[in-house]
Every structure is written in C-alpha cells, then in structure tokens.
Amino acid sequence: MATTTDPAAGARTAGTASDGDGPAIELEGVAKTYRAGRSTVTAVRHLDLAVAPGEYFAVVGPSGCGKTTTLRMIGGFEEPTAGTVRLAGRDVTGVPPDRRDVNTVFQSYALFPHMSVADNVAFGLRRRRVPAAEVRRRVGDMLDLVELTGVASRRPGRLSGGQQQRVALARALVNRPGALLLDEPLGALDPLLRQAMRAELKRLQREVGATFVHVTHDQGEALAMADRLAVMAGGRVRQTGAPAEVYERPADRFVAGFVGAANLLTGTVRTSAGGDGYAAVDLDGGQRVRAATAAGPGARIDLTVRPEKIRIAAAGTEGPDGGANLLRGTVRDAVYQGPATHYTVLVAGAGAAEPVELVVHRQNSAAAGPALRVGAEVRLTWPPEHSHVLGPA
C-alpha cells in the first residue's frame, strides 16, 4: 500500500494494483441461481464482464435484471453458483467481503447514527488497527476531499441526504480500495440533489483515480456518469460500450427502448442497398424510409430513430430535404417540457395498414417556429444515417 500523505494518490495506487494492463474486475462465466420452494430462479446467466483499472463503469437495467446480484458477487456478499470472480487478476471466488480489495456504498448509506461523521469515516481504519495519528490524518484528508470538514463532529441525523452520501463515500474510500461498488447510490435523493451528486461522484472518481462500478436502474444516470456501461435484462448483458455507442447504436429492441427514448419501427426491405449504402425499406405503416442494411429484398428488419434526430414541420413548409427520409403524419399529442416540446405523430398507412406512431422532440427555440397544434398535418424528416437497424433480440 502506498505511504503517501495524499489520499487521492493512495487510492490511485490501490486502484491500479493489477499486474500491468489487466482488468481491475473480471467476471468469467458467472451465474447465480436460487432455490424458491421447488423451483430454481436464475438471477444471472453465464456473465462475462471486464472493468478496466480507473474506469467508471455502470450496470443499468430494470428491476430484477440481475444487476445488484452481480454487484454483490463482486463484493463477496453473494457467491456465484458457477464461474469465477477476479480482482486485479486474483481469483477471489469464495473469499469473504472483508478480504477483498473493494468497498461497497449501499443506497441506505448504512451510517452509524450514534457516531460522529469523523468516527464513521474512521471506523474501517480503526478495525484494521491503523495508528491513531494516521487515522486522524487520513480522515481529515478524506473529509477535505468530500468537502465535509466543517461537519466532522456532527452525527449523521443532522446532515442532509447529500451530505450523508458523501460521508458514506468518504468511509468507503478512506481505506483506499482497489474498487468502489455503488448500489443505487443516488436512489434516495430528490431529483435536484441527484443531479448535483452526479457531478460530485464523477469529481471524486477523477480525483482518487479508483475503479467505480455503479449499479442503477436510471439510464440517464448511467449515460451521464459512466465511461462505459453494460445494459442487463433477464440476467444477461445485452450490450456493453461507451454511453454514446450504446445510445446511438443499440444492439436490439430492448436496449433501444430502455436506454433513452426511441421510435421502434418494423419493415420489409424493398430494394438492396445502393451505391450510397442505403436500402429502401417499406414500413409496416405503409410509408418508405432508407436505412443502412445488408439484408436483401423481402427481409424483415427492425430499426430505430431517436426522437431528437427527427425534424418536424407543418405540412405546408416544403423545402429541399437533401436525401433525408420523409414521412407525413398528424400530430396526436403535444407535451410542453420547458426546453423542448414532445410531439406524438401518427404516420398514416396505405390501405388497411395500421398507422405508425412516432415521438419527436423539438427544441423550443426562436428558430423552431410556432408550436404545432394537435391535429396539424406535419412532415417528418431525418438523415438516413439515423435509421439504425437493430440486431435480433
């Protein structure tokens, strides 16, 4: 362990203690099943995952997808039914939590109400019999880092939710763990405080340089904070990648619909891709778009386009589209959201075809023009590169 007097430098040393460029955290073939009466419940299914040293990694998914179970297996609070858990290259499968180089911050924070802030932060150091002078120095340095020096003598009950969270973070980081595990750390905070604490967590992670694994059901939180993220559903990872990659190029319908808002469309390829790389696709709603796909004529495909990629205008405002996709429809709903208005548009089908419903987000700027009323006839346009073809479920 580093002997520097800088707590951030100490955490950086611990966080990058793997032998070379190997993962800080690695799960190989990990699975977890439970007995429920006569049944077997599978929480995690053959999971392979690697988190790099110093990375802010988020695991996002709906309730019951297996994300918290995965975090608990990394921390040692649950043992996998199958597979291997490695920390900095060391196999820790079967090793108890107090012998793993990780700390966990839970949603409840689990602070000791009868202890002061300083004593809460010092708790782990004293259990490890760190000399008293070293405890005082490291606690002081950590309280400086989380900007809580002025409340060191208070008890947790006299602190705000954000301050309690920072105490929990300080207590977890003061031991200089190789990785910090965060289980829905912002879930107990009100929306405004949650926004502020996102920036606070990122600041702390950058300053200490440790590996963070953050579990959340809030996809916006994961997109805003993570260097990389994994989207889970049904005990499996559906996609892993940088936030922009997962958002812009979702792997399948689940990822597209869960990570941000998405228009999910189904159609039949009419003509193969031409020289520009785009194929003509007849939507089930009866109108036609272009999308990049290698599928041949007659193939059924799913595609998505994000609501903010679509330009909406009144039907009479014709103009050059420069090869953009063009659909015509009717405004069914308009919801004012402050910076933007969210429109729901019914795109009429041909003959007996059911209409397709698309959501469009338009900024409320001076350039956008007057608001569109419900019932207005509109035209929707977007570049074909934003028609992203999805893989199979």
Order of helices and strands: HEEEHEEEHHHEHEHEEHHEEEEEEEEEE
* Number of DSSP helical runs: 9
> Distance between termini?
46 Å
Number of strands: 20
Low-confidence stretches: 1-19
Mean pLDDT: 87
- Strand-residue proportion: 25-35%
CATH class of the largest domain: Alpha Beta
Shape field: elongated
InterPro entries: AAA+_ATPase (IPR003593), ABC_SmlMolc_Importer (IPR050093), ABC_transporter-like_ATP-bd (IPR003439), ABC_transporter-like_CS (IPR017871), Mo/tungstate-bd_C_term_dom (IPR008995), P-loop_NTPase (IPR027417), PotA-like (IPR005893), Transp-assoc_OB_typ2 (IPR013611)
Catalytic activity: ATP + H2O + polyamine-[polyamine-binding protein]Side 1 = ADP + phosphate + polyamineSide 2 + [polyamine-binding protein]Side 1
Region (Disordered): 1-23
EC number: 7.6.2.11
Molecular structure report:
By secondary structure, this protein is α+β, with helices and mostly antiparallel strands. It has 2 domains: 25-255, P-loop containing nucleotide triphosphate hydrolases (Rossmann fold, 3-Layer(aba) Sandwich); 261-390, RNA polymerase II/Efflux pump adaptor protein, barrel-sandwich hybrid domain (OB fold (Dihydrolipoamide Acetyltransferase, E2P), Beta Barrel). The protein has helices at 7-15, 67-75, 117-127, 132-145, 161-173, 191-208, 219-225, 243-248, 253-258, and strands spanning 25-36, 39-51, 56-60, 82-87, 90-91, 102-105, 179-183, 211-216, 228-233, 236-241, 263-271, 279-283, 288-291, 300-305, 311-314, 325-336, 340-347, 356-363, 377-382, 388-389. α4 crosses α5 (161-173). The model is unreliable at 1-19 (pLDDT under 50).
